[in-house]
Design goal:
By secondary structure, the chain is an alpha/beta fold. Helices cover about 50% and strands about 10% of the residues. It has 9 helices and 6 strands. The chain has a 6-stranded parallel β-sheet with strand order 3-2-1-4-5-6, with helices on both faces. Helix 2 (about 35-55) packs across helix 3 (about 65-80). It is elongated. It starts with a strand and ends with a helix. About 35% of the residues are buried. The model has no long low-confidence stretch (mean pLDDT about 95).
């Protein structure tokens, strides 16, 4: 019996199964930044590492502010590598334009996300388990999601990052149930599904557009969906097994 649901955040509750690299690259193309996808991906990795290693993100930063700070790091890399030579005004316009585009993308998904969470919250308590920068509560608040997650396990706070199964053990403890009674929902096969199953949880894989194509064992998750809107039906089927 499923008694609690653990949700991932990024790629699951904001982009509905799209890795953020794809959303950002779409934003770069929308604004017309003259760099290749390979150059962008190099900058994306650089930016992710910079945010993880340095106290750039403040606890009170909402997602738009986070995006601006992330894009400053990415464009630092693009300029430093000589991939792009904008004026200061051009660079500022790109940073703000891509941040606006990506934030609007999340906002468009929120109706579906709220509907799914509303349909499940009457039956299951939720826990959020996320690799994030210490500001996930501010991000949730900005999208009206904070009331759904009274318990949050955030990597920057607990000092454990996915794919370490320990972060999911903390999630199960926060839920106050056993692993067998816990369902994990996430978009990353390697960072969500594999460690969740290693802990003994059931898992629904939100399969979508990942960082790169990969071969996976689709028999490992208990269910596979391609949009979060299908989650309630998937849970209903699991409950009948």
């Amino acid at each position: 019996m499923i008694k609690a649901i653990i949700f991932d955040y990024g790629g699951t509750l904001d982009t509905d199964a799209r890795h953020w690299a794809h959303v950002l690259w779409e934003g770069y193309r929308h604004i017309g930044v003259p760099v290749s996808e390979e150059q962008f991906r190099e900058a994306y990795v650089y930016g992710e590492r910079a945010l993880a290693r340095n106290p750039i993100i403040a606890e009170t930063d909402n997602f738009h502010t986070l995006l601006v700070k992330k894009l400053i790091q990415e464009t630092d890399c693009l300029v430093a590598q000589g991939y792009w030579t904008p004026s200061a005004a051009e660079r500022e316009a790109v940073v703000n334009g891509v941040a606006d585009y990506c934030n609007a993308y999340v906002v468009r998904n929120m109706h579906t996300i709220h509907c799914v969470l509303d349909s499940l919250r009457r039956s299951y308590p939720f826990v959020l388990v996320s690799n994030f920068y210490g500001n996930v509560q501010a991000v949730l608040r900005g999208y009206g999601l904070e009331g759904y997650f009274p318990k949050i396990v955030e990597s920057a706070v607990v000092g454990v990052r996915k794919p370490d199964p320990a972060i999911y053990r903390l999630g199960v403890e926060a839920a106050g149930v056993t692993p067998e009674e816990t369902l994990v929902v996430g978009d990353s096969y390697g960072k969500d599904i594999v460690p969740a199953k290693a802990v003994g949880c059931r898992a629904v894989w939100l399969r979508g557009e990942g960082w790169a194509p990969e071969e996976v064992d689709e028999t490992l998750p208990d269910a596979v969906i391609t949009t979060l809107a299908d989650l309630p039906d998937a849970i209903e089927r699991l409950a009948e097994e």
